[in-house]
Design a protein that fits this description.
This protein has 332 residues and is an all-beta fold. The protein has one helix and 30 strands.
Length: 332
């Protein structure tokens, strides 16, 4: 698609990169942006809301110090202040007073196909002149003495690397920092981070005296496919941040199960025990807690330890008593 103006001279947004150290909040940029919305700021690959930083001249100041990391702070300029602006003629008009029998007229440089020719005020058709070399116009019929010949030419170029104006067009392919992924953009801008809910949908045999992982094999929902309900029964988020986690463990105390404990495990180790409550004379362990997850290898599982032997009874979605659910509440 053609556009009027000078051809582009660059193909990527101006970008600054800084190293965080966990204490510095102010960084000096190479260009002074107009305001906070004129730049895209990412920390450790996570897009930052403009309310979390300010700009004054070339100084970028965060409300909280970014974590330590080499090149983990990226500032991409959506537009930079204009400098050295010069006048450019996008429409050039030239008039000639013809001599008797004149056919060739030298005109300023033009793009072939983007020039209009008038003779005594009448617009000529394409068959009435030839304009194929960018510098001259040749009339098909010679001009008469003192004919007024006028040319109007246009400066034309084209954009080859514009991002399409379609939903989902902005992907990591258009970003210098490919770590800013669609998932992180969604989590940082729209709040659409990972969320899940899973419960134990089939009966499970328990062994006395050991911690047994509860087979949370039935999902109510799993927005980012981060919960494994078929093999490991664990939640492994793809976005680093702080997650609100809810869980409950319930096993009826019988003659064969005299007591039990429910617990949340992180990365294969005990993270915390649930809070004991009593339901119809039977104990239940439940809790709602906030867990920091690194978004790559951290994972959570639900465990139970019983005294005696017995079975965890299968539950339905509406009556699940052994379950875990969670969602991202803030990116790291």
């Amino acid at each position: 698609m053609a556009y009027i103006g000078a051809s582009p001279t660059t193909s990527a947004f101006v970008t600054d990169t800084f190293n965080g150290n966990g204490s510095t909040v102010a960084f000096t940029m190479s260009v002074a942006p107009a305001n906070t919305t004129s730049i895209i700021v990412a920390v450790s690959g996570v897009l930052q809301d403009p309310s979390t930083y300010s700009v004054s001249g070339t100084t970028l100041t965060f409300s909280a110090a970014p974590p330590s990391g080499t090149g983990n702070i990226s500032v991409r300029f959506l537009g930079i202040p204009a400098s050295g602006v010069t006048s450019t003629a996008y429409r050039t008009q030239t008039e000639f007073t013809a001599t008797a029998g004149q056919t060739t007229f030298s005109v300023p440089s033009y793009t072939v196909g983007f020039i209009d020719v008038y003779r005594n005020g009448v617009l000529l058709g394409s068959a009435d002149f030839t304009a194929t070399n960018g510098t001259t116009v040749v009339l098909t019929n010679p001009a008469s003495l003192s004919d007024l010949v006028e040319t109007v030419s246009f400066y034309v170029s084209s954009v080859l690397n514009a991002i399409p104006a379609t939903n989902g067009a902005v992907t990591s392919a258009y970003l210098l920092d490919a770590s800013v992924t669609q998932a992180k953009l969604a989590a940082g801008v729209a709040g659409n981070g990972p969320a899940f809910s899973a419960y134990q949908g089939t009966s499970q045999t328990l062994t006395s005296g050991i911690y047994t992982k509860i087979a949370l094999n039935t999902e109510r929902f799993d927005t980012n496919n981060n919960f494994d309900s078929t093999t490991n029964y664990r939640f492994t988020p793809t976005v680093a941040g702080y997650y609100q986690i809810n869980y409950e463990v319930y096993a009826a105390t019988t003659s064969t199960i005299t007591s039990f404990v429910g617990a949340l495990y992180k990365n294969g180790s005990l993270y915390e025990y649930g809070v004991i409550t009593v339901l119809n004379g039977n104990q239940a362990f439940s809790n709602s807690t906030l867990v920091s997850m690194n978004g790559s290898t951290d994972y959570l599982e639900l465990y139970i330890s019983v005294t005696g032997t017995g079975t965890l009874t299968a539950a339905s979605a509406s009556g699940a008593t052994n379950f875990m659910s969670g969602c991202l509440v803030r990116t790291a």
